[in-house]
Every structure is written in structure tokens, then in C-alpha cells.
TrEMBL record, chain A:
<keyword id="KW-0996">Nickel insertion</keyword>
<dbReference type="Pfam" id="PF01730">
    <property type="entry name" value="UreF"/>
</dbReference>
<protein>
    <submittedName>
        <fullName>Urease accessory protein</fullName>
    </submittedName>
</protein>
<dbReference type="InterPro" id="IPR002639">
    <property type="entry name" value="UreF"/>
</dbReference>
<keyword id="KW-0143">Chaperone</keyword>
<dbReference type="InterPro" id="IPR038277">
    <property type="entry name" value="UreF_sf"/>
</dbReference>
<dbReference type="GO" id="GO:0016151">
    <property type="term" value="F:nickel cation binding"/>
</dbReference>
């Protein structure tokens, strides 16, 4: 085994995992702010990360894998994937959060790769979900195609981002050691990899896992009406 | 989504400055004075609440739906400069919902002397100080004070009560700004309010005629970025 990779998609992996990427993610907490407001204790945050990785994030990772595969087809049609994910996200607040992040990623994709066929196809992705903007995994898949990323790379980027989103928000919401928060993400590696395996196994929109959590949906819904909040979602 | 600036889209005006210097009040004043002649909307960036949006709505100077609050994840500086996504989304939504708009005001979350808007978010920006924050602040400099398109020294009517010489503070600002305008302002000072409105009308006219180019105060002291090469260069 050589000591370098061939570099395919490697820059995309780094960019999509970078908190400095200008897509609006810094204003999101993956519903952690609402969970803490509802009584979740600081020591339960690692459990919360696991729950997100097995639920919302697994469904989004699978959708991102499907979107990347669709992005390599001709013509590109994201609409069934968007519809499948929307149908598996019963909480309007969580759909809105995903759409908010999707909007930022779409702006980035159009700015970086305006000529790419998958980026052009983002315009028709919401055709089967009237009133709902394109969800986060769809432009993630389109960007993955533009960068030449592999499906597991896109899935892992989606899942890592979820874990890091919670950890970073926790540091704003509760006192704590930033290294301890980083450890939560490192310790979540088995859960990330398990969800990567499930996600890359998705081959048709019906394979997107349906794993909504009623308690999480309720917290997310309450947060949308909170008038004292740091994070949009 | 209107992503490419053209002279037909609304002028986007940012108002930045430290907490409590009167940014919301300045925006309420602009709405009160200009809403009769211009189609306007406002985006606020509160830190923890939607207090600024509520204040503006309760001021009754603009329809509630034309005032949109965004959350910044405790990063008000980031949200107007390094990652302007949430603000661009809000501005574009307002421009679409109330087209055609003449003027969109973006109020930054109260931050510090280094927070200025990205030129990708606003076309022009006001930096707001106030006399109650201390007569020496204008001398302290920073990109907003030295290079914003307009520096406002607000609450000038309070100067006698806090022992600040407004004329001196304005002179300090002018000295730091190499000729860019400084305005002493108080809500009750009708002449100053009219000067503020005239400045906005002037920038809007330039924007419509294609004469206005957004310029960036920069994140740092002006000495480190003086290679912009156009008429607003710092000359040193």
C-alpha cells in the first residue's frame, strides 16, 4: 500500500467537513438548543449525538448517497430522492432546517460549479415537494459529483457534520472543555461508520431509512416558536 | 434567486456598531422618514432574542412582514462577514416577497469595533457609535470607524449629560476617515435626520445609475489592505 491516495474527491471531503464553509451551518445546533432547553443534561449530549447519527443524519446520509449516484446519471433527476426524504421527515421544523442548510449548499454549488449538470438539476429537485426548498442531502450529492467524491465520502461528510454541529453548538450553550466536545465526535466513530454502511447500501429512494424520533420532532417544533434562542434550529 | 447585483435590485444598506449605540433606533428613524417615498424592508441580526425585530415592529414604522429576524448561532460577526448565508437568504426572500423594493436595511447584531459587513451582503454601510459609549471611541479606530461609508455619532443630545464634546468626537472621526462623512445624530435633531436621509437618497441614486461600487472597510486596520487602487484608496 502506497503512502498517498489518488486524491479523488479528497479536497471535496475536506471542504464539506470544514466549519468555515460559507453555507450558514454555524447558525444551526441540530436541535441541541431545544433539547437542552427541554431538560437534556450535558452528560447526555454524547447519547444525543448517537441518536442523531442513527436517525435524522442516517436518513440524510442515505439521501446524499442516492443524490450522488443520481448526479452521475443523464439526465439528472433528484425529485424522487427529495420526495422520499421529505416523506420520512414528518417534523416541519426538521424539514425547514434541512432546507435552510440545503439553500446555503445550493448557493455554494452554483457559485463553484455553475455549469455542472448536477448543479443545474438542483432547480427541479423540489418538483414533487411543492412549498419545500431543496433539502440538504441533494446539493451535498451534487457537490460530491462535482468534486469526484465516492459515496462513502459524501455519507461520512454528512454524518461527521451532524456530530460536529452538536458538539460545536454545545460549547456555545453549556460551559465545557472544547477538547472534551471533540472527544464526543471521535467517540461517535463507530456510530458514524455504521450509518455510513447503511447509507451506501441505499440504491433506490425507498431505501432511505424512516427513523424519525417523536421526542426530537417535538423539541424541534417547539424551538421554531422560541423567542430566546441562539440557533435557528 | 436574485444573486447577481444589478442596478434594478434594491440598495442593500448595512448598519453595524457596538451594542446599545442606537442601530435599531437609527433604522426606525430611516423607516419613519423614508417609507413614504421608498419601498423598504429590514433584516435584523439579534444575538439571543428577536428583540430588535420586535422593537421595529412595535415602532409601527413598517409592516410586520417586512421585518425579518435571523439567528446567528452566537456568531453575529460571522453572519455579516465570513458566512453571510442566513442574511442573504433573508434579503432575497424579502426582495422576492415585496418586489420591487428600493431599500433593504440590514442591522448587524451588536458586536465590537472590528465587525463590518461583507461587500457581498451590502452595497453600503453605516457604522454607528454613540456619545454615551465614551468620547474617545472614535479615536480608537477599527475598520468600521475608519472606512464605513458613513460614521454616525449617535445620541448627540446626551453629550452634556455624559461629559462628551460632540464636536471633538466628530473631528476625531473625520481625522481617522480621510474625508469620508461623519454625522452627529439624535432622533430629535431634525436637521441631522434630514442629512442622514439625504445621504441615503444620494447613495441610492448612485446605485441606480450604476455609479456606486460597494467598498469594503476590511476586517483589519486600513493600513494592511490599501491595494484596492480606486478612488477610495487610502493614499498611504
Amino acid at each position: 500500500m502506497g503512502d498517498t491516495t489518488d486524491g479523488t474527491g479528497a479536497l471535496g471531503v475536506l471542504l464539506l467537513a470544514d466549519a468555515r464553509l460559507p453555507t450558514g451551518a454555524h447558525a444551526h445546533s441540530a436541535t441541541l438548543e431545544a433539547a437542552l432547553a427541554a431538560g437534556l443534561r450535558t452528560e447526555q449530549i454524547p447519547d444525543y449525538i448517537r441518536a442523531r447519527l442513527r436517525g435524522v443524519a442516517r436518513a440524510e446520509a442515505a439521501a446524499a448517497v442516492l443524490a450522488l449516484r443520481a448526479a452521475r446519471e443523464n439526465p439528472v433527476d433528484f425529485a424522487p430522492i427529495q420526495a422520499a426524504l421529505a416523506a420520512r421527515t414528518p417534523s416541519r421544523a426538521l424539514r425547514d432546517a434541512s432546507a435552510s442548510l440545503g439553500r446555503g449548499l445550493t448557493r455554494l454549488a452554483r457559485g463553484l460549479f455553475p455549469e455542472h449538470s448536477a448543479v443545474a438539476a438542483l432547480a427541479t429537485a423540489p418538483d414533487d415537494t411543492p412549498g419545500l426548498r431543496v433539502l440538504r442531502p441533494i446539493p451535498l450529492g451534487a457537490l460530491g459529483a462535482a468534486f469526484g467524491m465516492a459515496v462513502d465520502q459524501v455519507a461520512r461528510a454528512a454524518l461527521y457534520d451532524e456530530a460536529q454541529c452538536v458538539a460545536a453548538a454545545a460549547l456555545k450553550l453549556r460551559p465545557g472543555d472544547p477538547i472534551a466536545a471533540t472527544r464526543w465526535v471521535v467517540d461517535a466513530a463507530p456510530d458514524i461508520e455504521e450509518s455510513v454502511r447503511v447509507a451506501v447500501g441505499a440504491t433506490v429512494p425507498g431505501d432511505v431509512p424512516a427513523r424519525s424520533a417523536p421526542q426530537l420532532d417535538r423539541w424541534a417544533g417547539a424551538h421554531a416558536y422560541s423567542t430566546r434562542r441562539l440557533f435557528v434550529a | 434567486m436574485p444573486e447577481n447585483p444589478t442596478s434594478t435590485r434594491a440598495l442593500r444598506l448595512g448598519v453595524a456598531g457596538p451594542v446599545g449605540t442606537g442601530k435599531s433606533s437609527l433604522i426606525a428613524t430611516l423607516c419613519r422618514e423614508l417609507a413614504g417615498e421608498l419601498a423598504m424592508a429590514v433584516v435584523t441580526n439579534d444575538i439571543y432574542t428577536d428583540e430588535d425585530a420586535r422593537f421595529l415592529r412595535s415602532a409601527g414604522v413598517l409592516d410586520h412582514e417586512r421585518i425579518h429576524a435571523v439567528q446567528t448561532g452566537a456568531c453575529p460577526h460571522t453572519a455579516i462577514r465570513d458566512d453571510i448565508t442566513a442574511n442573504l437568504d433573508a434579503v432575497e426572500d424579502l426582495e422576492l416577497a415585496f418586489a420591487p423594493l428600493d431599500l433593504v436595511l440590514v442591522e448587524s447584531g451588536g458586536d465590537n469595533l472590528t465587525a463590518t459587513f461583507s461587500p457581498a451582503l451590502v452595497d453600503t454601510q453605516v457604522f454607528c457609535l454613540d456619545v454615551a459609549g465614551g468620547g474617545d471611541v472614535a479615536r480608537k479606530g477599527g475598520p468600521g470607524i475608519t472606512s464605513a461609508d458613513l460614521l454616525v455619532v449617535n445620541k448627540s443630545d446626551l453629550a452634556p449629560f455624559v461629559g462628551v464634546d460632540v464636536g471633538r468626537m466628530v473631528a476625531d472621526g473625520e481625522k481617522a476617515r480621510e474625508g469620508r462623512p461623519v454625522l452627529a445624530l439624535a432622533r430629535s435633531d431634525t436637521a441631522a435626520v434630514e442629512r442622514l436621509c439625504s445621504w441615503v437618497r444620494g447613495v441610492l441614486a448612485d446605485h441606480r445609475e450604476g455609479r456606486h461600487t460597494p467598498r469594503d472597510p476590511g476586517p483589519m486596520a486600513p493600513h494592511t489592505h490599501a491595494v484596492d487602487g480606486h478612488e477610495h484608496g487610502h493614499g498611504h
